[in-house]
Write a structure and sequence with these properties.
33% of the residues lie in helices and 14% in strands. By secondary structure, the protein is an alpha/beta fold. The chain has 2 domains: 234 residues, Rossmann fold (3-Layer(aba) Sandwich), CATH 3.40.50; 275 residues, Alpha-Beta Horseshoe (pyruvate-formate lyase- activating enzyme). The longest helix is centred in the last third of the chain and has 20 residues.
Amino acid sequence: MNEKTKALKYLKKVLKPSRYTGGELNEVIKEKDKVDARFAFCFPDTYEIGMSNLGIKILYDCLNREENIWCERSFAPWLDMGALMREKDISLYALESGDALKDFDFVGFTLQYELSYSNVLYMLDLAGIPLYSKDRTDEHPIIIGGGPCSYNPEPVADFFDIFSIGEGEYSLVETVKLYIDYKKTHEKFDRNEFLRLASHIKGNYIPSLYDVKYDGKDGWVSSVTPKYEDVPALVEKNCITDFDNAPFPEKVPVPFTETVHDRIMLECARGCMRGCRFCQAGIIYRPYRSRSFEKLNEQAKSQYKTSGYEEMSLSSLSISDYPCLMELVDSLKEWTDKEKVSLSLPSMRIDSFEAEIMKKVQGVRKTGLTFAPEAGTQRLRDVINKNLTEEDILGGCRNAFSTGRTSVKLYFMNGLPSERDEDIEGIAGLGHKIVDLYYQSPDKPKGRPVEVTISVSCFVPKAHTPFQWFGQNSLEELVRKQKLLGSSIHSGKIRYNWHEAKVSRIEAVFARGDRRLSKALEIAYKNGQIFDGWDEYFSYDRWISSIEEAGLDASYYANRKIGFDELLPWAHIDCGVTQKFLLSEAKQAEKEVTTPDCLTKCSACGAAKFGADLCTKRCI
């Protein structure tokens, strides 16, 4: 009897039992005796969040395309299910086969968000797999991590055997094939020998093969050096250059229960040419690459036929920069209108907003629009290199209102480097101007009020960005600025949402952390800290006490300005953009000087090494 079979008879006792059953349309089932390696792909949060992640669907498909590899899925059980599994001695299992994760060859985690780290330990613990890499034997699965957080893997380095840096469509398969070949050519599997061989695959970072030393006086990282000559000193990310022909699933598992993003997702492009200085995704996914609209239309039809979804989202870091957006929308509308499939767009840059496109995509159901000005004054927008004027913002909203929209959501940040009180007050002022603009518009819908939502998050300095050296505001200062903005809003037409500053502070600790934080993470987990991404389970006091118990100071990681001459804990990870460029951008920010986008002028960031034409090619 496998673990899922043992669990099924208890599922009536837990919330949303469909999280744990598998059996969905389009899941991949293979015969165990006909595969050479098994991979459990784990998402360290609930099923409905994990099944909304496009990356897990792409890699699930890539691995399962190989006849001798079987990739299955596993998600973090909710607290009621986790408690039941411990009580009934049920090991964490994969949805497809129901087999325990500890019996797989690989257990992989996608790390999308720093506050999912405690759930990684939670899942390893439920699976009966030792938390620390050093405690695993040759019989345990290889634990591999990837995703955006792996660009600074150090805070969780002690828990992983391998990190796959960059885009894993090909390298992940290559790593599993190396494992298969190794087992076929060796009488006995030697974990350490295999990991050393795996370090030769581009993008594979094996933390156990590196020594980390710290400066005795100030405590910063003084060196990260490989233990062996054949292990790379600098781990270069994987980057797909032929993005139009990159793997993309023709069909994906369709959940029985509603998920956060319950729709077809078309990945129109990767990367961003804009260069916002706070944005990690805009750096680590460089260079900008797009798919042809013909290929995207084919992918959309395939996924619709195999899923029946009635909504489709066009995905990109900046969808309005997709060069063939009008052609793509036109080709999709030729059949989506007949099938009653609605189209939606992610957050757009206001300066390239096109009312004609929005009229087309409002289709079956009309929704509000989301823009991201990020800062309330021109000075601060120049500091962060947003390259967006107030007239751009108001013009975009004017276009939105002309299409019949009555609601606009605007994303901002507080605590940005060099921010002043007038920048915070400028957010409220901009909101008031948009409300006034609506009522002055002759094209506004008659008899319908406007709603402007201002959503403000706290700045978190991220690795591999120009702002990686700048500290986060103190917790008290972040809270003060949140209150200042609230007191500056005087219109009942403006809704103000803000992100919990305590959550952002812990996120900043791990975003700029080093290996010493592994101990703090273990302490926090053993003290009951899981599901940190859920407000009701996040405990700031528990995190601070755990960090202090590990002999560390949260302010050291989150709040201090790192010296430009200091070795960064993640310096041995090559994101494809040079430190010279990032440093130049940091100094430009201090001067309040902007840098043109990649299409206007190449700023020699380093990403051209993956193919110079990729950086400026507008349409395939």
